[in-house]
Every structure is written in structure tokens, then in C-alpha cells.
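Title: Prediction job returns without error message
Component: structure pipeline
Severity: low
Priority: P3
Assignee: unassigned

Description:
Job completed but the reporter wants confirmation the result is attached to the right record. Sequence as submitted:
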Amino acid sequence: MERGLAVPCPLCRFAGALGNDTEEVLRAGVNRRVLRRQGPGRSAKNASLAGLRVWVHHTAIARRPMRVLTRLVLGFLALVLFPVAGLAASIVVVEPEAAGFMTRVAAREVRRYVYLRTGQLASVVSRLPEDRPAILVATRTDAVLKDIVPVEAQNRIAGIGPQEYVIQTVQPGKQQIICIVGGDDAGALYGAYRFCELLGVRFYLHGDVIPDKRLPADLPQVTEAGKPLFDVRGIQPFHDFPEGPDWWNRDDYLAYIGQLAKLRMNFIGLHCYPEGHPHAEPSVWIGQESDLGDNGSPRFSYPSMWANTQRPGNWGYLPMKTTDFAA
């Protein structure tokens, strides 16, 4: 029986480390003679794969002086392109099976920012593993806490109220677990974002700031509690300036509102003066609830306009000649 020339090369060894599918494509077991034996009835796919095999090994055999350089390059690519492969199985984010909506969001936000800071993409699971480090996102009533949190920490957690949180590192046996526990669903979300800040992330109204230098994938030791100073916290942008929310589109609103939760805020208000026409803010309708129809549309209105230099009122910009612009 004729056999193909099997010449091991660094590319095939590297492919073997990546998985069977890749190894099959790059396997060193086919030469031109075996390719001919497949006959004219072979599929285009098989012909393409066989041709790739022949090309790879033709190149590897004809350019043996390049072997050392090839190994160095492939080894470097393995380190750069696949740094997470060895870490992916080392940490998980846990959300209880009965977790509320904001707790589930919190778990996925923790996963996202852990990835951005460490390069490790953790799994989100509903049960604590027995032998892997974990980040648990829960509320104080979740039963899973009783099995892993020391009595002293349990008493601390039991006393937190709505919108409050506790972040506590526990170590049952050899396993390390960070517990992010909210007094309610919102508290779990606020605690998750606070944990992200402990990883070096900073949140602002305009967006996130994430350091370029990555952290090691080790879990930090944390013991921290947080509670709001005020029940209502947020922003109240004014409508009476051309740079205000009159110029926002849907994406702007979503971006600002999305950042508020990261800043542990829970309110957005739009400032409006009570005067109607002609001094109402641009694109703002002022009226009573009884002035609205069943579908939310106003039953009456008055002339409105976008901000411009001809708009009457005390706020805005005065008209001026372009020749008077500062250089």
C-alpha cells in the first residue's frame, strides 16, 4: 500500500494544540501521490483541503532553514493571540437561579469588566463550583450565602437595606469567593459597579475609562460596604441652552441613562421653566396631565422652535456678524 510522506512540522504541532479540526486541515500525511490516488471524483472541498496539506508540507520541506524562525513566530502568536486559553477555566461569575433582572445584569457587567481588565472571559453559571475561584452576585435573601459566608459577615449582610451593598471576600476551604451582595436588586447592581472600580475602572457621565495595563487574573481581597447618602440621586440637565438635551437623540439619552447606574444614580430630570409661548424651552411642551390624550399626545399646543439666534427670550445667543468672530 502506498503511503503519504509524513513530515512533522511546527505548524502541525501547533495545530494539534489548537484542536482536531485544525489539525486535520494541516495534518502531515498527504503528498502529491496520495492526492492523485483520490481520483477525479473527489469533492472540491476535499481537493482544497488536500491541496492545502500539500502546500503546507511542500513549504515546510522546501524551506527547512526557516523552521527555527517558524517555531519562534508561531510560539509568539500563541502567547499573544491565545493568552486567555489557560485562564478561561479558572474563574466563574455566579448568579443564583432565582436572581432578579438587575442582579443578572450585574453578573454580566462584572464578567465584562473583568474581561476588559484581565483578558479573562469568565463563565456565568447558576451554581457555585467546588474547586474554582468565583465571583458571586446576589441579594441578601439568597440562600447560597448561608453555606459560604462566615457568621460575622452574615450578620453584616442581614443589616443592609435597599440600594445598599456589601462586597466580601470569603474562603471556604481552599476556594476563594468574592461575594457582591445587595440589599435588593438595585443594591446588587451598585455593588457590582463598585467592584469594577476596585479593578481600576472609572465611570463618568461621558463614558468609561479603562486602564491599558491589564491586571493579573487573581481575585482581590475585599471587605467593603456602601450605602447612598440620598434616596434620589441623578442629573437634571437644563433645556434652555442650545447645548442641552434639545440636541440629544435616542442614542444620547441611552448613553447618559446607561452611565447613571454605574455612578450609583437613579434619577434623570429635565429642567423646564413654567412659562409657555414665547419663552418655553426649544422642543419642550408644557401642560397639565389633563391636557394629554389617551395615547399621550397633547390636546393642544403652541408655536415651538429649535434654538436659534432669532428666538425671543433671555437665554441663548445673540446674533452677530461672522466678521466679528474671534480668530
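Comment from assignee: result matches the submitted record. Confidence is low (pLDDT under 50) at residues 1-65, 78-89.
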